[in-house]
Design goal:
10 strands, globular, alpha+beta, single chain
Length: 462
C-alpha cells in the first residue's frame, strides 16, 4: 500500500462524519447533484443555493482533512495543533456541522505572524485555527470545482493543474513572438487592500447560498490577534488560510477579463501580472490605462516604485528572467541566485559544530526543492556551477571542523589521501575557502563522498 493510500485509510479509520448520508442515500444525493450540474451549468442559481450541503458532504470533508494534515502548519489562537484536529472532530463534528448548515458558525480571529521578505520588509500572515483551516479547505474545494473552469487561461496562480513554470513558459512564448517589451505591474499590498463589500458582491454573483455567503464574510471579518489584542478586519483577505488564494483569483478575474477584452497578451500569477507588447510607447500607454482601471474599477493600488515598462531581461518574473534576442532563454533571476547562496551560507556556517550528516539533513531537502523549481531554467551551466560551489562550501566547512593540523592529516589519510599530500595540505597556512579547491580535499571529499551522504546535484550531469 502506498503512503497516500495508507494516509487515506488512516483518516477513514480515525474519523467518522456520522451525520452524513450513507449508502444508497449518499449515492442518490451525488447523482442528483451531478444531474443538476449537467442540466443547469456551474453558475446557474438553482445550482448554487445548497452549497453548504456540498461543503459538508462526507468525501469533501475527508479530502479537506487530508489536505490540512498534509499542509501541517502552526497552531492558531486556540493552540490546537494539526495532530489534535481528528480527535476534536470526532467529539464535536455533529455540533459544528449543525452550525454550518444553520449559518451560525463563528470563526475565531487569526494569529498574526510576520515573515521576512526576500527583498526586505515583512509579509504579514494571518494563521487561522486548525478547525477554521479545515472548514476553509472544505469550502475552497467546493467553490474551486465550480469557479476554476470559468477563470482566464492567462491566470496560473493557485489553480489545479497550473504552475509558475507554465506561467514563465507562456511569457517566454510572447517574448519569442516579437512582444519584446514588458508592462510589469505590482499591486501594492494586494491581500491587505481587497474591499470586503466588492469581494462579497463578486461571490454573490456566483453563489446564492446565504449560509455560505455569511460564512465567507465571517472569515473575512474574523479579526486579527496581535500582541494579545484583537483588531477588527475591515478590508483585505488574510494570507495564511486555504480560502484566500481562491478569493484573490476571483477579485483579479475582473482584471483578466478587461485585459482579454482589450486583446492584450498577458500572464498573471496571483498578484504578479506581466503584459507583453511590441514597443516601449505601447507599453507606456498600456501602463497608464491599466493602472487607471485597477485604481478606479478594482479599488486597488499599483506600486509605482516596483512597476515598470522595460525589456523582459531587465525584469524578473516568478524568480526567472530572460535573455535578450529572439530565443529569449529562461534564466534564473539574479536575486533568486543571491537568495540561494545566502541560504546555503547559513547552513554551511552551522556545519562547523555538527556532523556532515546533520548538515546534509538540512541542506539536501532545500536543494531538492530549489532544483524542482529552478531546474526549469535553460542555462545548465549555472546549475552546474552552483552545485560545484556548494561542494566547495562543504569542503571548507569540513576543513574548519578538523581544526588542528594533526587532526586534518589524520582525517585526510582516513579518507584515502596519500600521506605526503595529506601532510602538505594539513600543514598549509592558507584559508579554508582556498584549500577547499586543493587536490587533497577533492580526493578525500570527492563528489562520490558527498553523493553517498545524500548530496543532490542541481543538474543531472554534474
Amino acid at each position: 500500500m502506498s503512503l497516500k493510500d495508507d494516509k487515506q485509510q488512516n483518516i477513514q479509520m480515525q474519523l467518522d462524519f456520522s451525520e452524513m448520508p450513507t449508502g444508497e442515500a449518499r449515492r442518490a444525493d451525488r447523482e442528483e447533484t451531478e444531474s443538476s450540474r449537467a442540466t443547469s451549468g456551474p453558475e446557474n442559481p438553482a445550482n448554487t443555493n445548497r452549497l453548504m450541503e456540498e461543503v459538508c458532504e462526507r468525501e469533501n470533508l475527508k479530502a479537506a482533512l487530508q489536505q490540512v494534515k498534509a499542509n501541517k502548519g502552526s497552531a492558531g489562537v486556540d493552540g490546537m495543533t494539526v495532530g489534535g484536529i481528528t480527535d476534536y472532530l470526532k467529539q464535536h463534528w455533529p455540533a459544528i456541522r449543525e452550525q454550518l448548515l444553520n449559518g451560525t458558525y463563528v470563526p475565531k480571529p487569526v494569529r498574526r505572524v510576520e515573515i521576512p521578505k526576500p527583498d526586505g520588509g515583512v509579509r504579514k500572515l494571518g494563521i487561522p485555527t486548525v478547525l477554521d483551516r479545515f472548514i476553509q479547505q472544505a469550502v475552497m474545494q467546493v467553490l474551486q470545482r465550480r469557479w476554476d473552469p470559468t477563470f482566464s487561461e492567462s491566470s496560473y496562480g493557485f489553480r489545479p493543474g497550473r504552475s509558475a513554470q507554465q506561467a514563465v513558459a507562456q511569457a517566454q512564448q510572447y517574448i519569442a513572438g516579437g512582444h519584446g517589451w514588458c508592462v510589469d505591474l505590482d499591486l501594492e499590498k494586494f491581500f491587505d487592500r481587497v474591499s470586503h463589500d466588492k469581494l462579497m458582491g463578486q461571490i454573490a454573483k456566483r453563489a446564492e447560498d446565504e449560509r455560505l455567503l455569511k460564512l465567507i464574510r465571517a472569515f473575512l471579518k474574523a479579526g486579527v490577534i496581535e500582541n494579545g489584542l484583537v483588531s477588527p478586519s475591515v478590508e483585505g483577505t488574510p494570507q495564511g488560510g486555504p480560502l484566500s488564494p481562491l478569493l484573490s483569483n476571483l477579485v483579479l478575474d475582473e482584471l483578466d477579463r478587461e485585459l482579454e477584452r482589450r486583446g492584450h497578451r498577458f500572464v498573471r500569477y496571483a498578484d504578479d501580472c506581466n503584459i507583453y507588447v511590441r514597443s516601449e510607447r505601447a507599453g507606456q500607454r498600456v501602463m497608464d490605462s491599466v493602472t487607471q482601471f485597477i485604481t478606479q474599477k478594482l479599488k486597488l493600488k499599483v506600486n509605482e516604485a516596483k512597476s515598470a515598462v522595460a525589456r523582459p531581461q531587465e525584469r524578473k518574473f516568478l524568480g526567472f528572467s530572460f535573455t535578450a534576442g529572439p530565443e529569449a532563454k529562461r534564466v534564473i533571476a539574479p536575486k533568486a541566485l543571491d537568495r540561494f547562496k545566502q541560504r546555503v551560507r547559513e547552513i554551511t556556517r552551522r556545519a562547523k559544530g555538527v556532523s556532515m550528516e546533520t548538515t546534509m539533513d538540512e541542506l539536501a531537502p532545500y536543494m531538492r526543492g530549489w532544483r524542482s523549481y529552478f531546474g526549469f531554467c535553460e542555462t545548465p551551466e549555472v546549475l552546474i556551477g552552483l552545485t560545484r560551489w556548494v561542494r566547495l562550501r562543504l569542503r571548507a566547512a569540513m576543513w574548519r571542523q578538523w581544526k588542528t593540523p594533526r587532526r586534518r592529516r589524520a582525517a585526510l589519510l582516513e579518507l584515502g589521501v596519500r600521506p605526503r599530500m595529506a601532510s602538505n595540505t594539513a600543514g598549509s597556512g592558507l584559508g579554508p575557502w582556498y584549500l577547499a579547491r586543493a587536490k587533497a580535499l577533492s580526493i578525500g571529499l570527492s563528489n562520490g563522498y558527498f553523493k553517498s551522504l545524500g548530496f543532490p546535484s542541481l543538474f543531472e550531469e554534474c
